[in-house]
Amino acid sequence: MTLAFGFSRFLNPRVNPSTNPILGLWLFSCSCSCSSSASSAPEPPELAGGPGTIREGRAEIFADKSNSVFYNKAQVNNRDLSIAVLRSFLLKRQEEHDIRLVKGRHAETPPEQHANDLDPVVTGSEDTAPREESKIKAPKVLEALAASGLRAIRYALEVDGIGEVVAVDNNEEAIEACKKNIYHNAIPASSKVVPNLADARVYMLTHPKEFDVVDLDPYGSPAAFLDSAVQCVADGGILMCSATDMAVLAGGNPEVCFSKYGSYPVRGKYCHEMALRILLACIESHAIRHKRYIVPVISVHMDFYIRVFVRIFTSASTVKTSPLKISHVYQCVGCNSFHLQNVGRINSKDKRNVALPNFCPTVPQECCECGHKFVMGGPIWSDPIHDKEWATSILSNVQAMSGAYPAYAKISAVLTSVSQELVNAPLFVSLHSLCATLKCTNPTMAMFHSALRNAGYQISGSHVDPLALKTDAPMSVIWDIMRCWVKLHPVKSRPGADPSNRILSQEPKLQASFSQATGGLVARKSPRFVPNPEKYWGPKAKAGRPLKTPHMDNCEFRFTANTLEAGDRTSISK
Ligand SMILES: C[S@@+](CC[C@H](N)C(=O)[O-])C[C@H]1O[C@@H](n2cnc3c(N)ncnc32)[C@H](O)[C@@H]1O
Ligand SMILES: [Zn+2]
């Protein structure tokens, strides 16, 4: 059925390669690096939505019930968010280019800033000096682990101004499927998406700094691809990287996490944010080997995986400050208090901003709150994981184009949470966990927020957990607030070494006020968390393995919360 359908499209005169030079070229040389146009994507041809096809956004691919090529519809969230980031990245690059034009070509620009610029389109003749055009060169994208090509095709069809999209996979069946899917989507996907059968690591290593965007969406861990990926991204370009090995990253197998990412996870309520920070630290550690460094745009935990979007720049001097962005985490085994300590420190006498190794641990042998020991996790990325301003602008662009995103409800909720997060407060405490330690009743979230604000600290939620409390207050202040709460709502004393005994035996140094603080929690207009749209919304078996869940059997999904007609935009036609 699939083949017959594909073949009939082949015969369609509208897309016949013999009458279409671009398609003809593609057929003979699909892995060449043909030049691409920067023009905005024209409307795709009307796709038939025929039997055996899957439609997502503006793309349509052939369904493969045998699972010989990987496709997981739950990743629509991942693909939609990536498109949103990509759209805003193009705007950002244009903005940066415009600023540079205004400043003038010969203005003094620090080396880092030069590194951030996309190659401008330069025009000129013998008698005229080269002139930068007002439009940047269409950014080139590498989808290094492409499978069916759905993501690459969506990028080509849906992101205005995008350049060539190279879709690499080392599986022959995947590349064959990719070719059929590219062809099925006809112009402009066929003129922009270039399939390539290759090992992604080799391809990336042999194309240094060539792609403005590199997308890594592996089975499980991206660790094996990071060293080549950080070398493949152009200066100022963006690396978009998923990891689905959450059991490893969130503390289920600490030794495996250390071997893959060079970091120990700690099992805590914040484990998903820690997973993001472990991945960021790992990417940074690869980047600095090549005199490059990362700047996170947004970093999210969604569904069953994490995905980070980081820009990559080159600067030997900034690389020297990398230890200031990386920290160890000490977590108390009794009360779950945590403390961060930078791996490096700045020697104040040294004006060069070079980081030296930090002094010995900032925590005592025993926790001041409960007397238990600490475990040491990390190192993790302890600088901001989002560019808040950028996250807010991605959110408003998404809201302005809600109809363009099949997973609008999910990605707008995640972006809403992300844009409200405190960026200078790595990790978080959970209100439930604090109360569970003391065996006391819960204050409301609004009361706890007010108590911290009234004490002069900042507080926010986190997109990874609806019960998270992110704050710049030290643990001692958090426990003092809980001590004050327990004075108002007494608990029975516990026997022996229970952490609550030691915590509650200390008088609070701070008198907490739970009365409503200005700027406290307000009723939220937009949801920050939405339920999964359907059953089996999770990871999927690798290609070639039998499916245990009926991923391909339910023909359509609908988001249940705050959706428009989202379900109509992603569907599988049987
Ligand atoms: C999770 S799938 C990618 C899904 C795809 N990005 C999407 O959005 O639908 C991972 C793909 O990576 C490919 N792959 C695994 N190792 C590879 C390697 N070393 N080089 C190139 N491709 C590889 C697999 O064949 C598989 O198709
Ligand atoms: Zn403790």
TrEMBL record:
- Catalytic activity of the protein: guanosine(26) in tRNA + 2 S-adenosyl-L-methionine = N(2)-dimethylguanosine(26) in tRNA + 2 S-adenosyl-L-homocysteine + 2 H(+)
Sorted alphabetically, which Gene3D superfamilies does this protein's record hold? N2,N2-dimethylguanosine tRNA methyltransferase, C-terminal domain (3.30.56.70), Vaccinia Virus protein VP39 (3.40.50.150)
Q: Gene Ontology terms, cellular component aspect?
A: nucleus
The record's EC number reads 2.1.1.216
Q: Write out the biased-composition intervals (Basic and acidic residues).
A: 104-117
Is Metal-binding one of the keywords? yes
Q: Where is this region: Disordered?
A: 104-134
Among the Pfam families in the record, one is TRM
Q: Which domain of life is it from?
A: Eukaryota
GO aspect biological process, one term = tRNA N2-guanine methylation
Keywords attached to this Swiss-Prot or TrEMBL record, sorted alphabetically, are:
Metal-binding, Methyltransferase, RNA-binding, S-adenosyl-L-methionine, Transferase, tRNA processing, tRNA-binding, Zinc
**GO terms for MF:** metal ion binding; tRNA (guanine(26)-N2)-dimethyltransferase activity; tRNA binding
The UniProt function text for this chain reads: Dimethylates a single guanine residue at position 26 of most tRNAs using S-adenosyl-L-methionine as donor of the methyl groups.
Family membership noted in the UniProt record = Belongs to the class I-like SAM-binding methyltransferase superfamily. Trm1 family.
Listed name of the protein: tRNA (guanine(26)-N(2))-dimethyltransferase
Task: Specify the taxonomic lineage.
Answer: Eukaryota, Viridiplantae, Streptophyta, Embryophyta, Tracheophyta
